Amino acid sequence: MPPVRVQLDQHHDHFTNLDIITGKVILSLSSDEAISQIVVKLEGESMSRLVAPHVDNTNKRKVETEVHKLLYKTQVVFPLEEIQRRKTSAGGFTLRPGQHQYPFHFKIPINNSCSPMNSVYANLNIVGPRMEGAERHVKKTLPPSLCGLAGEAEIKYYVKVTVERPQFYRENYRHRVDFKFFPIEPPRPPETRQEAYARRLAQFTTDIPAFQKKRSLFESFRKEPPPSTPGPPPRFQIDARLPHPAILNCNEAVPLRILVKKLNESPGAPILTMLHIELVGYTYIKAHDIAKTESTSWVVLTRSHLAIPVGSASDPVNSETRLDPQLWDGVPLPNTVAPTFETCNISRFYELEVRVGLSYESTGNSKSQLIVLPFRIPTQVFSGIAPPQALLKAMARNRIPEGLSPPPPTPSSLLLPSSSISPGYRPITPNTQLQPVSAVYSKLPAVSGTMGHHQNGPPVGYAGIGGDEAPPSYEDAMADEIGPVDGPRRDYSQNIGVGDRKDGNPGRLFP
Prior knowledge:
Elements: E1 4-8, E2 20-29, E3 33-35, E4 37-51, E5 63-78, H1 81-85, E6 93-95, E7 98-107, E8 124-127, E9 130-133, E10 153-164, E11 173-179, E12 195-203, E13 235-243, E14 247-249, E15 257-262, E16 271-287, E17 290-303, E18 308-309, E19 320-322, E20 341-342, E21 346-360, E22 369-382, H2 389-397, E23 426-428, E24 499-501
Parallel strand pairs: 14-22
Antiparallel strand pairs: 1-2, 2-7, 3-6, 4-5, 4-10, 8-9, 10-11, 11-24, 12-13, 12-23, 13-15, 15-19, 16-17, 16-18, 16-21, 20-21, 21-22
């Protein structure tokens, strides 16, 4: 175990932008020790590791690893600057036996600092006789800590101390402490009365006769009353709607509205029997010339064996019935959902999937019918940690140059494959006439349209949730004089191994 360790003064379960990380380096020596300097580093990195497909039908598979330094700050805690200036030899400083403590502090910036220069070694990938450097670098808000993708993608933050010793043959002492990071949310777009929606049109079939017992010889001579002729089965339209731009908040319920519109006269009304709400996350991972997209899902709500009437047979045509939002209002998103983010080699985007099951049973000897209608709406997920008001005011005073960083583009700019979005998906306003994009009147069991699968990464033009041009963003220069976030924080769970650990690279080449 190294004689040095880092102790953080952690007041929250996680850190966020503008937080000041404080702590101390504790060096315990049992004898006199020559020390050149003690350097504390605040670092964040995004690492991706992918295996290429088999080449030439052999068992050889190329493994690509790409690492980006998202955050890199250093502080020399020993010797002090005035002592360093008086230094006359290269032999370092001799520390006496005992425990030595050196305080440090860092302020976490808003945006990442990845560039070809600050990651020159981490971004090199040696493949045979050639060396590949990471070509893509983006400037965005620092992404959240991320793990749990089978070692293919990881975003981690840590404080590391290096005790440098002047003798080239003696190993430097190192130690680091990992911590969770959860970013503040980007500037929210102004509220509108618009809604984004996915729509399905469906109709139950005509009555399906139930199984009837075979009549005996004597019963066949008995006269039966003529069968009744019931009216047409219900035809209806269902909308799943979110406020536009579509934004979900971590640890909060989904602001969903589900409307059922009656489209014909019918002797009966549909019955809600099943409701399923699920958040689907897509993680785009790139490692040099290899890329893939992994999907993960979080079940928000699943209810079955319901028997809730949707309207009544006496409702007029074109009347709308809203499903009771209390079914899902009290159910927040799981605390393992990370907010939407984008880095140089890893990005995350989401879709909300809703499935509505309706049944219908008319009078007479007919079997009940069930239709399950799926909906998908592209959405953003925000952390829910509001930025300080002083930062928003500073941003309002300073117009940001175009092309800086993330927040909202319109759903039209989320160019997802058409097969992945439910028919009829588009933003609407209360004054917009609700015309179906395509008339899909399906018979049992159902519905047209297929569920999409993202093959080649994030959609072209994917930038967030709001308009086609670059939205406003934060600048670190604005935040220099602004204090930490003073408000509620959200619960965020990532198994990143928070705590003390020895640095896994004890070499002396890059201290």
